């Protein structure tokens, strides 16, 4: 009985340590994608402040929009299969990958539209793209991000 209990205890401990090691293998990807999303959100907030209708900093808006488009293009590789643990990502990210990836591409496109609008100093087009981006973020959060 003691040998069986010891064997079971060792087996459980081994499985737990393997699970912990596997989960930690993705910590750099989880940290990178969380950092990228935070940078993107900070850039978007900053763009909104820079666009004031009369004296907008068009060059800075364009720079931030292009930076966000680049972030969106880099994000898909930061979601390897099995990297949900330790993150706020729902399993739907992987079970509905095409929809998730399409959302990232679409959002990246909105940032390209913002960059073009800034280049043309078109406040109406910029605000429209910002509104679309906001809706895209909210929609993605509802579908693919856990609240806690």
TrEMBL record:
<keyword id="KW-0249">Electron transport</keyword>
<feature type="binding site" description="covalent">
    <location>
        <position position="140"/>
    </location>
    <ligand>
        <name>heme c</name>
    </ligand>
</feature>
<feature type="binding site" description="axial binding residue">
    <location>
        <position position="141"/>
    </location>
    <ligand>
        <name>heme c</name>
    </ligand>
</feature>
<dbReference type="GO" id="GO:0020037">
    <property type="term" value="F:heme binding"/>
</dbReference>
<protein>
    <recommendedName>
        <fullName>Cytochrome C</fullName>
    </recommendedName>
</protein>
<feature type="binding site" description="covalent">
    <location>
        <position position="137"/>
    </location>
    <ligand>
        <name>heme c</name>
    </ligand>
</feature>
<dbReference type="Pfam" id="PF01322">
    <property type="entry name" value="Cytochrom_C_2"/>
</dbReference>
<keyword id="KW-0408">Iron</keyword>
<dbReference type="InterPro" id="IPR002321">
    <property type="entry name" value="Cyt_c_II"/>
</dbReference>
<keyword id="KW-0732">Signal</keyword>
<dbReference type="InterPro" id="IPR012127">
    <property type="entry name" value="Cyt_c_prime"/>
</dbReference>
<keyword id="KW-0349">Heme</keyword>
<dbReference type="GO" id="GO:0009055">
    <property type="term" value="F:electron transfer activity"/>
</dbReference>
<dbReference type="GO" id="GO:0005506">
    <property type="term" value="F:iron ion binding"/>
</dbReference>
<keyword id="KW-0479">Metal-binding</keyword>
<feature type="signal peptide">
    <location>
        <begin position="1"/>
        <end position="23"/>
    </location>
</feature>
<dbReference type="InterPro" id="IPR010980">
    <property type="entry name" value="Cyt_c/b562"/>
</dbReference>
<keyword id="KW-0813">Transport</keyword>
<dbReference type="GO" id="GO:0022900">
    <property type="term" value="P:electron transport chain"/>
</dbReference>
<dbReference type="GO" id="GO:0042597">
    <property type="term" value="C:periplasmic space"/>
</dbReference>
